[in-house]
Amino acid sequence: MSLTRRSFVSGMAAALGYMGVRPAGLLAQASSDNLKLAPAMRERIAEYDAAAKLSSNENPWGPLDSSMEAMNSAWKYSNRYGYPDGDVLQKIADYHGVTPEHVLLGAGSGEILGVVGLTFLEGGKKVLGVEPTYNSVFARAARIKSDAIRMSLNDDYTQNIPGFVAATRRHNRELGFVYLCNPNNPTGMIVTKQEVKELLDGTPEDLPVLIDEAYHDFVVDPDYATALPYVLEGRQVIVARTFSKIFGLAGMRLGYAIAPPDVIDRMRPHSVGSINALVKWGAVAGLEDASGREWIKTQTIAIRDRTIADVRALGYEVLPTETNFFMVGIGREIRPVIDEFRSRGVRVGRPFPPMTQHMRVSVGKEDDMGRFMAAFREIFPSVKS
Asked: Does the first or last residue of the chain, that is N or C, have fewer Cβ atoms within 10 Å of its Cβ?
């Protein structure tokens, strides 16, 4: 635990001390060893804490030290409404070269995807996307009695952009918006900047296109680019971003949309705005900490590429990736394989139909990936000739 993480805990104690909670009592309560938990819950906590968590594409190093320090300073607002928030909306706008009117905050980008669905799928409209991709959009559409038009990936697992364009023309009256995850989750593969242009130029100009850039910060391929310039052109483009990945704030929940102000105005009534005080300050600090983000990116890519090389050396296909995860062709159904890894203390990604003979693996620390490779060698024989 770094000095800033220790100070975070002590700051938590101090902040709750302001509210009449004894710091010593708080710190005792903060340990699961001292909570009155059922034995089954204790077992689940112990298993979770001990596992190599490679299933949810998180940042294994946690928040940047700068974010920890900022959140520590914000505990004093934990019992307040209308508190100073570090001017987080303006900071995000400045970071992207837009105005605050272009930005809508949400409790993670998951809320943003839900808000887009509520806004643009009224009246039975449908969302167009590929399968597999990040399923949250489709799941949320189903919950509001809407539907999705799902296209297959190309044979090389890239997204079929000419197919997207043709489908928007064919189903224009049925569609509420188009969903493009770039890079795609679960494959980790990009849609090039030329393909994004092809999609946006070919889509009816009044049809919104939601581009999910959750993994933007890990990309190094020069053929990739953010879609933000299209927002500044005034096109019906919504870019979703999150602080859950490279910023390490997944459990704190903060994401945002960037879109033309008239689009944001349509979305705003569907936003809950339930964002906590700490994460706002942590986000502001993270945006200002370019060196901290670069360290996370460098470490992630180096560990990812070494692990991919180890897997390929055993004869297994790994898809090209520009993210903090990768996908391995395992040649058999993934569901029982998930259980085999879990029995060895390693958690890997869920099934992603129809790619049910592939396994998505998030990048962890060196030790996590060492445990993954040890389990992989036990579960899968080498097929290298």
From this structure: C
